[in-house]
Design a protein that fits this description.
Elements lengths: L3 E6 L6 H10 L3 E5 L7 H9 L10 E6 L3 H13 L8 E4 L4 H15 L6 E5 L4 H12 L3 E6 L2 H15 L4 E4 L3 H7 L5 E4 L10 H4 L7 E4 L16 E5 L2 E4 L1 H18 L7 E2 L1 H12 L9
């Protein structure tokens, strides 16, 4: 029976990236649906869960995407409300590539550096990738500060993630370099997840920092979010810190997304969100043991 994947996109136009990755993963047919909302998703879900017999429901799956994390969260919640008994299919949330990008970065970091007990700061962390990276770090035992230029945005993001995942993220305001420097006091990990082409962390704020052990940047468009690292860095040691650029974990992100998509067709009751996607990333990477070449 053919594997059918329905992309539920919260944006006005379907995400072509997710379509290509789904086909590369081995899906037989991908149906992109744009402008999907909690109000109109009901009929779409019904059409998927009622059509195939119980043993064949696993060959249909849903993928929630779009640029806005809050919209994706609301859509996933609405989708799950439509399920009952065995009338369900597997579904994955990856708005703006947030879960797979964050999971690839954190899994790569966890392989090289123990995370439990570390203080981690996410700069420009209120976007989809930042929120998910913060959650994943927290669930791995790190003390996480989610920072934004505006404290109200940081507060809102922390409230949403803490409520959803039972974490204890701490909000912080970093409107200027002095605030960033203060926020990094005592931190071992810093990650930038801001908009493309905006430098968030000057080299002089991290290169000689006394406690930092790892620096990560999710931006692949120059200028990078972190000055002084390279996009291809994958645990590269610079100034005594392990550095990770967007392309350094980008290959794992793509492999992880393909892997997760195919996992949807193994059963009909799988829900893939931040914790589950991180677990898949760790398994795909093969080991979380720290490297011995520090």
């Amino acid at each position: 029976m053919k594997k059918l994947l329905f992309l539920l996109d919260t944006d006005p136009l379907p995400n072509t990236f997710d379509i290509v990755v789904a086909y590369d993963a081995g899906v037989d047919h991908v149906t992109p649906l744009a402008g999907v909302t909690p109000a109109n998703v009901g009929k779409l879900v019904e059409g998927v869960v009622f059509t195939r017999p119980p043993a064949s429901k696993k060959f249909s799956a849903l993928f929630v995407t779009g640029s806005n994390m809050a919209d994706g969260e609301a859509l996933l919640k609405a989708v799950r409300r439509q399920f009952f008994g065995n009338f369900r299919v597997s579904v994955m949330l990856d708005s703006n590539g947030s879960n797979t990008t964050a999971a690839a970065a954190i899994a790569q970091l966890a392989r090289d550096l123990p995370l439990a007990g570390k203080r981690a700061v996410i700069l420009a962390g209120t976007g989809p990738v930042g929120q998910r990276a913060a959650v994943m770090l927290a669930r791995e035992g790190a003390e996480v500060v989610l920072a934004s230029r505006a404290i109200d945005r940081a507060n809102a993001a922390c409230r949403a993630m803490n409520e959803r995942f039972k974490t204890s993220l701490t909000p912080a305001a970093t409107p200027d370099a002095a605030a960033v420097s203060a926020c990094l006091t005592g931190a071992q990990i810093v990650m930038t997840t801001g908009a493309a082409g905006i430098e968030l962390l000057p080299q002089d704020l991290w290169a000689n920092h006394p406690t930092l052990e790892a620096v990560l940047d999710s931006n692949a468009t120059p200028p990078l979010g972190v000055a002084g690292i390279e996009m291809q860095d994958r645990g590269t040691v610079r100034h005594g810190k392990r550095c990770y650029g967007a392309l350094g974990f980008g290959g794992l992100k793509l492999a992880l997304q393909r892997h997760c998509v195919m996992q949807l067709f193994e059963r009909n009751d799988l829900i893939l969100d931040a914790p589950e996607v991180l677990a898949e990333a760790v398994a795909l990477l093969g080991s979380t043991a720290p490297r011995d070449d520090a």
